Amino acid sequence: MTQTRIKICGITSANDAKLAASLGADYIGVIFAESPRRVDVVRAKEIRDAVTGVSVVGVFRNQPLEEVVNATRASGIDLVQLHGEESPDFCSEVQKRTGKPIIKGFAVSEMPEEHELAAYTTISYFLFDLQRGARTTRDDIERVWSAVSRSRSKGFRVFVAGALEPANVREAIKRTHAFAVDVCRGVEQAPGVKDPDVLQQFFVEARS
Fold it and tell me: Which residues contact 93 (CB under 8 A, 6 or more apart)?
C-alpha cells in the first residue's frame, strides 16, 4: 500500500515551511481565506520560494473566481484547495484557468454522496474536514473517518483533516487508509505558529 502523504496546513512563515519540508511533508498549506492564519500573496510566494521537494497548496473559501486565479498565479502555488461551497463548474473553471490540480474540501456537516463527488470531474483530490466552529466530538471524528474510508474504497483520493494530532494520527491512517492526512491546529503553539517538537512527533506517529 502506498504511504499516506502528510499535509501541514496554516503555514505563515518561511521558517515553518522549511521545518515541515525537512521533516518530510508532502504538502504545505497556505491560507488565503479569512482566518487567523491568513497570508497575502507576497508572503505565500516567500513560502513557495523557500522550499523544494514539497508542494504548496493555496486554500480558498467561497472567494471570487478572479481572486482565486490571480492569487494562484502571483504566488506560484502548486495546488488549489477550494474549501467552501464551490460548485463543480466553478472548480472546473479554476482548474482550466490556472492549470493547477484542485483539492475540493467538504465539512463534516455536508459530506457528499458518491454521485456528488463524481460530479466534480476535474478534481484531483477531495478533503473531508470537521465543520468549522463546531465543538468537536468523537462522533464527528468517526463520521469524517468513515466518509474518508468509504470514498477511498471507491477509488477517490481523499485527504482526512480536522482534530488530528500526534495522539490520533496513527489511528486515523489505519482506519481510513486516506491518501493524505492534513493537520493545522494540532501541531501549533499559537495560531499560524508551529510547535517544532509537536510537529516532529506528528511525523513520527504518522510514518510509524
Answer: 65
